[in-house]
């Protein structure tokens, strides 16, 4: 299945898995960050709610206390101080009312919403009682003051009970947020470990794929190249896949076959050259024998020419002797012509015979000259033969 897997396809899937893992890790981290931000905001809101509630009740208590102090100072004759106390009480109750309204408006939990509404109504009752305390103080009515003071105490007791319930609910919510944060942290840690293991696994798979499908075949191809470069074509190249590495091995196999064919052709040509060299050696031996035979024949021809030259020289000497004899005959004929002047016919006949003999001698001299030319040619041939 994976033997024919393309290298680029394998690398694409490995990179895709790495990218998906990185994307999943990024999304998980983003979700964790968003969740943590929401939890931090909610925890901060819970803390602010608790502060608002505590500050609101504290201001409400201080408002009632300032009214009581103003009432006492008024009874003691300190009217200015009493008025200041009453004014401060009104300011404190107003600020407390604002904090309670913000607390109710920012309460989103349905379980806390009902308590917040009760808190609002109870606080309104308490604020009304404090206002009654201020009115009784201004009216200097001790009975009215004690009556509204009881109502204020009752409302404050209820406010304290509601505060405790709301603080308990806020504390429980804070604990839930912290527990959820701890769970999210644990999940993030496990997710980090899982992503780390997946990353290590992907890295191992990537390395295994590269080592098995790229590095090992390349090392094998390098070994084939070294053997082929050294002239060893005995180890066959096996193509095991059709991917890029398989194509490399196919080309390497084709090159090995081509070199084998070329080597076979070179071997055949070498055999033909060896046979041709043997044939040339035989022809050379035959030529040497023929040259030796021709040398012997030339030596024989030279001997024959030498003998012929000797014979021709002998003939030439005989011709010279004949010429000398002819000259002597001429002289004798002249003497005879003078002696036998009377016998004209005989002398004329002898003269004709002498003329015929002269012509023959001239022909013989011409033949001797021709023989001399032949001897010159034979000498030239003999000299060339000796040079050979």
From TrEMBL:
Alphabetical UniProt keywords: Cell inner membrane, Cell membrane, Chemotaxis, Membrane, Methylation, Transducer, Transmembrane, Transmembrane helix
Keyword Acetylation annotated: no
Ranges that cross the membrane: 190-210
Any GO BP: signal transduction
Main location: membrane
Topological category with respect to the lipid bilayer: Multi-pass membrane protein
Residue ranges annotated for the HAMP domain, each copy included: 212-264
Compartments in which it is found: Cell inner membrane
Methyl-accepting transducer domain segment(s): 269-388
GO molecular function: transmembrane signaling receptor activity
CDD domains documented for this protein: HAMP
GO cellular component terms, A-Z: plasma membrane
Family: Belongs to the methyl-accepting chemotaxis (MCP) protein family.
PANTHER family registered for this protein in UniProt: LYSOZYME-LIKE PROTEIN-RELATED, METHYL-ACCEPTING CHEMOTAXIS PROTEIN MCPB
This protein's name: Methyl-accepting chemotaxis protein
């Amino acid at each position: 299945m994976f033997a024919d897997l393309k290298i680029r396809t394998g690398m694409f899937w490995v990179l895709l898995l790495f990218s998906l893992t990185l994307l999943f890790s990024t999304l998980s981290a983003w979700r964790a960050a968003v969740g943590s931000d929401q939890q931090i905001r909610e925890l901060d809101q819970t803390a602010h709610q608790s502060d608002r509630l505590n500050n609101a009740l504290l201001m409400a208590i201080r408002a009632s206390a300032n009214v009581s102090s103003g009432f006492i100072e008024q009874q003691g004759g300190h009217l200015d101080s009493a008025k200041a106390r009453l004014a401060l009480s009104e300011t404190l109750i107003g600020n407390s009312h604002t904090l309670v309204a913000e607390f109710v408006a920012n309460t989103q939990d349905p379980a806390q919403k009902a308590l917040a509404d009760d808190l609002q109504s109870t606080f309104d009752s308490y604020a009304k009682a404090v206002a009654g305390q201020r009115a009784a103080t201004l009216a200097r009515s001790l009975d009215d003051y004690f009556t509204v003071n009881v109502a204020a105490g009752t409302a404050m007791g209820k406010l304290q009970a509601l505060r405790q319930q709301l603080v308990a609910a806020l504390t429980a919510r804070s604990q839930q947020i912290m527990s959820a944060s701890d769970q999210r942290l644990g999940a993030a840690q496990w997710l980090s470990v899982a992503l780390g293991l997946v990353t290590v696994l992907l890295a191992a798979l990537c390395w295994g794929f590269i080592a098995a499908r790229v590095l090992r075949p390349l090392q094998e191809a390098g070994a084939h190249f070294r053997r082929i470069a050294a002239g060893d074509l005995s180890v066959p190249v096996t193509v095991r896949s059709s991917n890029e590495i398989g194509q490399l091995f196919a080309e390497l196999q084709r090159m090995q076959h081509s070199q084998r064919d070329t080597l076979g052709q070179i071997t055949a040509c070498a055999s033909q050259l060896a046979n041709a060299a043997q044939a040339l050696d035989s022809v050379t031996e035959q030529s040497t024998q023929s040259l030796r035979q021709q040398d012997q024949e030339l030596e024989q021809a030279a001997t024959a020419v030498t003998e012929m030259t000797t014979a021709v020289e002998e003939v030439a000497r005989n011709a010279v002797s004949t010429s000398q004899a002819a000259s002597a005959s001429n002289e004798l004929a002249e003497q005879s012509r003078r002696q036998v002047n009377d016998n004209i016919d005989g002398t004329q006949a002898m003269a004709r015979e002498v003329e015929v003999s002269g012509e023959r001698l001239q022909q013989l001299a011409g033949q001797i000259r021709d023989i001399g030319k032949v001897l010159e040619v034979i000498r030239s041939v003999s000299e060339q033969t000796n040079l050979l």
